[in-house]
Amino acid sequence: MMDKGFTFSNKFKKDEYVGKMLKTIRAPSEERFLDRLLIGAILEYRGVERFALIGEAMEEPELQKFYHRLSEQEKNHGMMFIDLASIYFDEDVIRKRWDEMKVIEAEIAMNTKWTSAIH
Ligand SMILES: [Fe+2]
């Protein structure tokens, strides 16, 4: 990235989308643990989409491949969170909350200002 002349700020703002997601975490300990794992998975899966879109927008094949690899890695990270959840929770519990969180997340995504951010 530096070879391409990109610079990065060392100042980070709180991300509105992530903040809204974190506010949906339930309070009881077990539910909190599951919600945090599933939010981790959702953020990673959004990264899959984000990096794939960036890659598609790149003209240089080298950068296309770079972002494609990042997208694939985000998929692996998302699966890691689901795998971790499956160690501690039954599949039906995970599925039920996953389905609920997909609806919640869609609502948040549709009602949050778009920004250029990496989570
Ligand atoms: Fe990641």
Description:
It is a single chain. 71% of the residues lie in helices and 0% in strands. The chain starts with 15 loop residues before the first helix and ends in a 9-residue tail after the last helix. Helix 2 crosses helix 4 (91-110). The chain is globular and about 45 Å long. The protein is an all-alpha fold. It is built from 4 helices and no strands. The model has no long low-confidence stretch (mean pLDDT 93). The protein has a domain at 42-111. Fe (ii) ion (FE2) binds next to helix 2 and helix 3. Fe (ii) ion (FE2) is lined by residues 44, 47, 74, 77.
Main attributes of the structure:
4 helices; about 70% helix; binds fe (ii) ion
What is the arithmetic mean of pLDDT? 93
Ligands, deduplicated: fe (ii) ion
Low-confidence stretches at least 5 residues in length (pLDDT < 50)? Answer: none
DSSP strand count: 0
Q: In whole angstroms, how far apart are the ends?
A: 17 Å
C-alpha Rg (nearest Å): 16 Å
In helices, the fraction of residues equals: over 70%
Task: Sketch the major β-sheet.
Answer: none
Strand content: under 5%
Question: Count of helical segments?
Answer: 4
Annotate the secondary structure layout:
Layout (H helix, E strand, L loop, with lengths): L15 H8 L5 H29 L3 H28 L2 H20 L9
Helix pairs in contact: 2-3, 2-4
The structure holds fe (ii) ion (FE2).
Gist of the model:
With 119 residues, this protein is an all-alpha fold. It contains four helices and no strands.
